[in-house]
Amino acid sequence: MTTVKFAEGQNEIYNEAGLQIIGSTAPNQSGLSPRELLEAALGLCVSISLQKILDYDKKEYDKSSIGVEVTAVKAADGTNRFTNFAVRVKLPSTLDSTYKEKLMSVVERACTIGNTLKGEVIIETIEI
């Protein structure tokens, strides 16, 4: 469970281990904005999925050679939502091109956050 509290003039984001990060109201400020958190969730999911697949396939690689950049694009019609997520992935250069192609196909299916964003979800907001 993730908890968000407003305390001492800022939004604080907690997991069950305690305070993890400060939330901001807009991108590129101290703390992460909701847009940045969503982009980070997708990027982290892709990165973790890549590592799991590479480990499962018993590939040797330098984990620092993996990089993921995510850019969310807002709806052009002015509705308050994102319509596209551009995910750019840097893979270890030691992998051959055929395996990289397979890996990119598999990682899309393996990432829970990506699959959630692609699907229809229900958000139930209640007072606590």
Automatic annotation (TrEMBL):
Signal peptide (from-to): none
InterPro entries for the chain: KH_dom-like_a/b, OsmC/Ohr_fam, OsmC/Ohrsf
> Coiled-coil stretches, from where to where?
none
Question: What Gene3D superfamilies is this protein classified in?
Answer: 3.30.300.20
For this entry, the protein name equals: Osmotically inducible protein OsmC
Q: Which organism is it from?
A: Paenibacillus donghaensis
